[in-house]
Every structure is written in structure tokens, then in C-alpha cells.
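Quick note —
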Amino acid sequence: MIPCKVCGQEITVVFKNLFDTRYGYPDYFDVFHCSNCGLYQTNPPLTKKDIGPLYTNYYPYADVNAEKIKTDFQPELGITSRLKNWLIGNHRIQNMLPKGSGKVLEVGCGDGRSLMQLRALCYDAYGIEADENIRSIAKKLDLNIHIGTIENASFEPSFFDLITANQLIEHIIDLDSLLSKTKYFLKDSGIIILSTPNANSLYRKIFGRIWINWHIPYHQQVFTKKSIKTLLENNDLKITKIKTVTPTAWSLHQLEAVRHPTKIGLKNPYWVGKKAGGSKEQEVRSKKMFTFKRLILNLIVIFITIFNRIIDLFGIGDCLVVYIKKSK
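Predicted structure written out below.
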């Protein structure tokens, strides 16, 4: 028997032999489903010892250029930016927040761009990131990032007014430990906001085993509204608001994932950004087709954007955004 991480009930396999279709991790995994709370979880699970090397060696932060981040960064402020982010389904929490104050912790802050946006909004921003590649980036960008996990971070208790986690909780091995430390660092009046893929999304039901948010093996579980609510209640936390947001970019990635399958152990050129070059004849033909292709692509993007806003109204979008506070 394999127990559900959230409710402890027996889970059953729904997809066998899935693998990393993006960055080339060379192993197979299965996805199991809990019929009680709805959680999907990856098996065999990763261990804590696996996490650091996995993200350092496979996730695409090794080639991040700090100077380029600094040069390209444009803070998103004001009503126009908020309207644009709603329209395209921007799931990043830092782009949903108004200007404010107080201490904010971003758990799983990646290359630090989220912290730069938080600073632009006048928050005192801190980050946590497991990927060793980010250590030098944080130094060059003068960002306050703890390299490690929330379990070995050394912040004072009740230090933060807000703790955010963009697309993080699905990666976590020990969910109870994460939430325990999050509560420890959060003020009693504080708020947690997290985003995570929605296992009950329409896209998951359409694309099945090739849904991009299985993201094997990096996603150790994928939540439904019921399973995330159950997990939080088990840890004395409660949801104050939950909604779905479906990024247009995710939908385009999903279509490209169908067009660009790969084999186990190979990096997918689409995801790692290494496009194969063509002949001069192909380049000339490509330029002639450019205007027509761009028109078709724009029409596709418009259709997807409208479609995504509709499915979000019905709560079956691809990403959950969850607002949380302490129960006690």
C-alpha cells in the first residue's frame, strides 16, 4: 500500500513510466491518485538528498546571467500593469500585489526577479532558494537570498508579514515541515499566498499523461482544491480565498509540448532554449512566411487568452492561487 501524503488513504496508479520531458533527468516515475482527497503524487518519491543536486544539475539556472536580469528588469506598477497581468493570466504572486510595506519572504525565489518586483513595490524582500547556482546571482544583484531550504533558514520567529510561494508546494517532499516553518516565521496576523498547478483543470483532463504540469520528477505532487484545503487544515491553516488563474504562456507551452516530444534522458530543445539552425533557403522561406505566421499566432493567442479567462470563471483553470491565514 502507498499512502496519500495528505489524508493517508491508499492511492492507485493512473500513469506509468512518465519522465522528465524538459531537462533530461534519466529515470521513470509513476503518478498515483487518491480518490479520497484528490491528490496526485509522484512515485518513487525523491529524497531530501536528491533535491540540491537535482536542481543544481538539471534545472536551467546554471546559465542565468545576473547582468542581463538587471538590465532587462522592468518593474510592473500601476493599474495598466495589473490589467495586463490579469488578461494574460499572470500567476506570479508578486505581480498581483499592490504597493505596500512590511517584510515579505518568497520561498523558492528562483533567480531573484520576484524579489526585485517586491522591492519595487516597497516591500522588504527576502528569498529562499535551494539551487546553488543562485548564490552568485544573489550577490551580484544585492538580493537577500538564503541558499538552502526553509527548514534550515535562520529568520526570527514571527518575522514576516507575508510569505509567498510561486509554484513551490508541488515540489516539496515534506509538506508538513514546510508549513510548520512557514507558520513559525509568519506573524499571527500575517498572510500566506501560494500558487500551484490545479489537478482538476480542464487542460489536465484534455491532455492526460502529456499535461505539462506533471513536470516529472520536479513536481512531487499536484493538488486539487480539496487536497490543498485538507493539507492546510491538518496544519492549523485555513483558506480565506482560492481562485484559478490560467496563464496564456502555459497554454502555449502545452501546445508546444505536443509538437516537441522528447526521449528519456535528453534535454528538450524547446525548454532549454537551444533552437536548431536551418539552411539559408529555409531562412528565406521563413521570412516570407513571417507575417502570415505572426497573424495566425496572434489569433491563436487571442483565442486562448479569452478561453482561459472563461475557464477561470468556472474554477477549472490550470493554476490555483490560494490565500491563507493561521487558524489559531
